[in-house]
């Protein structure tokens, strides 16, 4: 009799699971959490993770999460499991866009999952930076209006006012900032290079004294404004922004070999960009600042670079300095 009841229960679960699959195929997503909750917990979780991973529409995602919450599901844990599922699939060559899309599930529960969102973003960025998928890395930052690291720091200061940021979390914030600084530095370098390739703006020549003496106040003021604009354009032609200069200071903690290699590549690229800028713009002060920066133990730049990189950069800086001093 007991075996018969067990078989009946299994049959009921089988039928219910088929019904849930029918709801999913009919795109009646908000009904799925209720009926899935009647299944054994492992089966219900597998169904929820699999079908919610495929949802792309943000409104539908939010509605389904609300339906799951209504039947007692811990939606924060569920969102973390959806993202973990995406990470696993991405390792099997699932598309990067799906991984980024799945990361957004970590945003929906609110402040309860912001820290998980930060660690998740860093995991994706570490993976993208490791294989130089910088366009994809930019897409990660585009998912969040504000800087995620700053948001986490602010939230911690509000929720745990008397407790300092834990070391692991502080390092995650710094890592996230460093990725963003590099991408911004790369954009700045590309903008500078585009300006550098253009002809240098010419300064308007002052009119002869006899012409100047006949010009009224408005004409003289207009000429001075034009001259000031040309001077600013001329300075911008060779200059770069502080983001690029400061990017070389970004420091990753070497928690793992993978992160160390990323930092080595990241710093090498930024230093290479800076050397190019200082050499082409004949900025001797900039070159000297870079040498001092590389020697500063505070930033551990020399330690992060390989011996070959360090020798190459010092040789380039030496050549650049010789050229600037001639």
TrEMBL record:
Keywords: Membrane, mRNA transport, Nuclear pore complex, Nucleus, Protein transport, Translocation, Transport. GO terms for biological process: mRNA export from nucleus; post-transcriptional tethering of RNA polymerase II gene DNA at nuclear periphery; protein import into nucleus. The keyword Thylakoid does not apply. The keyword Hydrolase does not apply. Its main location: nucleus. Signal peptide: none annotated. GO terms for molecular function: structural constituent of nuclear pore. Pfam families: Nup84_Nup100. Part of the nuclear pore complex (NPC). Functions as a component of the nuclear pore complex (NPC). Belongs to the nucleoporin Nup84/Nup107 family. PANTHER family: NUCLEAR PORE COMPLEX PROTEIN NUP107, NUP107-RELATED. This is Nuclear pore complex protein. It comes from Toxocara canis (Canine roundworm). The lineage of its organism: Eukaryota, Metazoa, Ecdysozoa, Nematoda, Chromadorea.
């Amino acid at each position: 009799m007991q075996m018969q009841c067990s078989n009946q229960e299994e049959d009921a679960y089988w039928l219910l699971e088929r019904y849930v699959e029918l709801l999913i195929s009919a795109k009646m997503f908000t009904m799925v959490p209720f009926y899935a909750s009647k299944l054994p917990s492992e089966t219900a979780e597998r169904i929820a993770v699999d079908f919610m991973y495929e949802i792309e529409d943000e409104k539908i995602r939010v509605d389904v999460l609300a339906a799951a919450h209504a039947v007692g599901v811990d939606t924060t844990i569920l969102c973390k499991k959806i993202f973990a599922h995406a990470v696993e699939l991405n390792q099997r060559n699932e598309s990067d866009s799906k991984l980024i899309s799945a990361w957004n599930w970590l945003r929906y529960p609110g402040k309860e999952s912001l820290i998980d969102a930060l660690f998740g973003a860093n995991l994706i960025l570490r993976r993208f930076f490791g294989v130089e998928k910088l366009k994809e890395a930019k897409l990660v930052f585009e998912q969040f209006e504000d800087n995620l690291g700053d948001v986490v720091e602010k939230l911690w200061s509000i929720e745990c006012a008397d407790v300092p940021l834990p070391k692991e979390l502080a390092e995650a914030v710094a890592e996230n900032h460093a990725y963003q600084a590099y991408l911004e530095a790369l954009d700045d370098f590309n903008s500078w290079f585009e300006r550098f390739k253009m002809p240098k703006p010419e300064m308007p020549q002052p009119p002869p004294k006899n012409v100047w003496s006949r010009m009224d106040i408005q004409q003289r003021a207009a000429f001075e404004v034009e001259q000031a604009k040309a001077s600013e354009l001329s300075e911008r032609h060779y200059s770069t922004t502080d983001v690029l200069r400061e990017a070389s200071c970004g420091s990753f903690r070497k928690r793992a070999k993978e992160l160390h290699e990323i930092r080595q590549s990241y710093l090498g690229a930024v230093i290479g960009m800076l050397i190019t800028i200082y050499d082409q713009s004949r900025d001797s002060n900039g070159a000297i600042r870079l040498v001092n920066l590389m020697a500063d133990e505070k930033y551990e730049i020399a330690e992060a670079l390989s011996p070959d990189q360090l020798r190459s950069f010092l040789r380039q800086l030496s050549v650049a300095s010789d050229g600037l001093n001639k």
